[in-house]
Design brief:
Elements: H1 3-8, H2 12-23, H3 29-33, E1 35-39, E2 42-45, H4 46-62, E3 67-70, E4 84-91, H5 93-97, E5 104-111, E6 114-122, E7 127-132, E8 137-139, E9 142-143, E10 156-159, H6 169-182, E11 185-187, H7 192-200, E12 206-213, H8 214-226, E13 230-232, E14 244-250, H9 252-261
Parallel strand pairs: 3-4, 10-11, 10-12
Antiparallel strand pairs: 1-2, 4-5, 5-6, 6-7, 7-8, 8-9, 12-14, 13-14
């Protein structure tokens, strides 16, 4: 048991077991088909609801003193300076609906507004990403590191289109074109959690997206930093871990280039 686990009273292995069990729900296509539209390009399926309920119930049983923040609930009553879980039950719901197979469960443990434990589980790849503050980042128990590429010319950059904010499309796509012209290529996955875990694993040199929600990046940000990466906002400043934030994550040299020269 790490000092972080002793300090928080949370067992990383036990929580990973809960998340892994919840991931099996992604394969229930009947539940996926029961979908509600919350807003423009914003959907919730029965799988989102079932994963949230399963994880919340199991965590409440094991750690009743820890608060709970999630995409599919009202979070107004949470003291964000206390110990709290931050869950995205399905990061990449649109992908799930289309059976695109690029979705993940993202769960972070935050203390005093800072992520101290992060878990991202991609059931399609059977990849369990974990990080504890100060202890490194891992995939299926094997330590991972960011890419060694440090120049834009050879960098693979993943973009996020902020699909809930279609009014940003013109500015976003001008930015994408500018970056595309200078890097080796760009990618668009549709799940911040998957992109951030791929950055941590060294598959991408950087990922960015504007107006992400806390549950989209709370776990992945810790994974990236513990893998040796850097996470800033688009202005080049520190991420505030507010409920909505712009995120640029990746190899430190590439993140600084992006925030200094493109945004």
């Amino acid at each position: 048991m790490t000092e972080m686990e002793k300090k928080t009273g949370v067992s990383l292995d036990a929580v990973c077991g809960i998340v892994r069990q919840a991931g099996a729900l992604f394969l229930n296509r009947e539940a996926v088909s029961r979908t509600t539209e919350k807003g423009r390009a914003d959907f919730v399926t029965e799988v989102d609801v079932e994963v949230q309920q399963f994880v919340r119930d199991r965590l409440a049983e094991a750690y009743p003193e820890v608060q709970f923040v999630s995409e599919e609930k009202d979070n107004d009553d949470v003291n964000r300076q206390g110990l709290m879980w931050v869950l995205d039950p399905v990061d990449g719901t649109t992908n799930l609906i289309h059976d695109y197979r690029a979705s993940a469960i993202s769960l972070a443990l935050m203390n005093q507004g800072e992520s101290v434990m992060g878990i991202i589980y991609n059931p399609y790849r059977n990849e369990m990403y974990t990080a504890q503050k100060g202890y490194g980042a891992f995939c299926n128990g094997k330590q991972i590191r960011i890419s060694r590429i440090t120049d834009m010319e050879h960098s693979l950059i993943s973009i996020g289109t902020s699909p809930y904010y279609k009014e940003m499309a013109a500015d976003n796509f001008r930015l994408f074109e500018k970056i595309y012209a200078d890097c080796v290529d760009i990618r668009r996955c549709g799940s911040a959690a998957v992109d951030l875990s791929d950055v941590a694993a060294g598959r991408l040199e950087a990922y960015f997206e504007k107006r992400l929600k806390l549950w989209d990046f709370a776990a992945g940000m810790l994974l990236v930093t513990e893998a040796g990466g850097l996470v800033l906002n688009c202005d080049g400043g520190p991420v505030r871990c507010d409920m909505v934030e712009d995120i640029v994550a990746g190899v430190p040299e590439i993140v600084r280039l992006l925030t200094g020269n493109y945004f």
